[in-house]
Amino acid sequence: MCPTTGPFVSGTVDDFRLLARTRLNAFPHTEVPDAPGIRRAAVLLCVVGQREGSPAVVVIKRAYRGRNAGQWGLPGGRLDEGETAEQAVLRELHEELGLTATPADLLGRLDDFPAASGFVITPFVAALPDAAELRPSPAEVHSVHLVELARLAADDVPHWVAPHAARRQPELGDAAAATIPEEVGLLQMRLGDGMTIHAPTGAMLWQFREVVLLGRDHAAVRVAHFTQPDWTQH
């Protein structure tokens, strides 16, 4: 029996796949309906096995050109005309990183995120056996980072700071961050040195962590209201 609550503790992709599918099937994700002016995009929280180390989620830093230059992100992008979100996210995964996934590799989805840029982003979750095929496109990807699931689930990763204190690589002391009430703060996912990620990407990583890795209560994990720094709104 796969647990519906509690942290993910297994070290295998197969066990993650079972847990994620179970928890995502039980998660009542929200969808943003079509409306004039809305543009659609899809991203993938892609978990891969590692030859040395535990399963990890793929995070990218975008190339220093074009839209979202130099920002942290997840594989994905805008939908082409006539394309579904599922089709788009699989295409973008291959174009950006050289990884091939099929619809059967998609384990479920999280909440649509209405970004301040005007895009509604649909996040999917997938699991692949390994990252051996990783071939990042230099035109779209500056660097690829494999964040182990244990790290993403660690207590010291999410921080809440005053919105005016956000910088591209902020490093506020823990005591300062702790004084900011969660409900009025801006989320920072501090995954490592020089790797502080805000919404929208940070919000989706946080929801993935809360829903899939930690099995938290659904009512407490909504993210559509999360504040975005000015530089992510383009």
Q: Could you describe the 3D structure shown?
A:
Its cofactor is Mg(2+); Mn(2+). It comes from Nocardia iowensis. Pfam families: NUDIX (PF00293). This is CoA pyrophosphatase. InterPro entries: CoAse, NUDIX_hydrolase_CS, NUDIX_hydrolase_dom. With 234 residues, this protein is of the alpha+beta class. It has a single domain, classed as Nucleoside Triphosphate Pyrophosphohydrolase (Alpha-Beta Complex). Helix content is 21%, strand content 26%. It has five helices and eleven strands; from the N terminus they run αββββαββββαβαββα. Strands 1, 2, 3, 4, 5, 6, 7 and 8 form an eight-stranded mixed β-sheet that branches. Strands 9-10-11 form a three-stranded antiparallel β-sheet. Strand 10 and strand 11 form a beta hairpin. The longest helix has 13 residues. The relative contact order is 0.19.
Helix content: 10-25%
Q: Tell me the series of helices and strands, N- to C-terminal.
A: HEEEEHEEEEHEHEEH
Tell me the name of the CATH class: Alpha Beta
Q: How many DSSP helices?
A: 5
How would you name the CATH homologous superfamily?
A: Nucleoside Triphosphate Pyrophosphohydrolase
How many strands, what sense, and barrel or not for the largest sheet? 8 strands, mixed
Q: Beta-strand level of the residues, as a percent range?
A: 25-35%
Count of discrete domains: 1
CATH topology: Nucleoside Triphosphate Pyrophosphohydrolase
Specify the CATH architecture: Alpha-Beta Complex
Q: What does the overall shape look like?
A: globular
State the secondary-structure class: alpha+beta
Low-confidence stretches: 169-184
Rg from alpha-carbon coordinates? 17 Å
End-to-end span in angstroms? 44 Å
- Give the averaged pLDDT, no decimals: 87
Q: How many strands appear in the DSSP assignment?
A: 11
